[in-house]
Amino acid sequence: MNNPADTSTRGQMPSLRKRPVQSGSRALVDAVEQACLQILDEAGEAALTVARIAELSGVAVGSIYQYFPSKDAIVALLYERVLDEESEQLLRVRERLVGMPLKAALEQILANIIRVETRLFRLNKVFHLRYHSALHLGMWRGPYTTTGEFIEATWLPLLQMYEQEITTQHPALAAYLLGQGLRSVFRSVLEDMPEQLESRALLDSLVAMAIGCLRPCTQA
After folding, report:
1. Best label site of 74, 117, 200, 206, fewest CB within 10 Å?
2. pTM confidence score
3. Average pLDDT over residues 160-180
4. Which sequence positions fall in the DNA-binding region (predicted)?
5. CA within 13 Å, CB half, 121
């Protein structure tokens, strides 16, 4: 059994063997996806098996494996749908930041990250932890090949927008800590204290951490 914390199982999500092209094959894949979602909603990840998916969807096990190499590949398709949807929402979140004070903007950004992480985590906790590095909303379908490219294209320009409100002498480091360091914090919260995901205390603490990166205290 894979340990969700095992780094050897992380990375890119599993994908379909082939994408459905004809209407019949698309209907088959959709039926499998919907059955997977229903099982997760009604019985949880422990009840999710290919045999149960086949039973509920009416698709033969052999036909399922023609498109999906594993159970995880079926779950990955659910995550693809959610991330595509949330990518559209992310654009609207970014538009709302224009003209906001720094602290309010950070609250909006971090509250949205918490909401998305919670949604993904509830879908399938084990899968989410196993493939967390691939479930990066900011980089999803984006033109970035590395985390560094993502940070330079998103977090660093954000800091430049608020250059009058920040005091750090190391904006590149601050951008990295916001873009990657906070993501590592989210991963730890998911593993160690998921009950805190929707607490106001978590959001307030993350905002304070972010402000600390941008307005570091100077020692006498």
Report:
1. 200
2. 0.87
3. 94
4. 49-68
5. 20
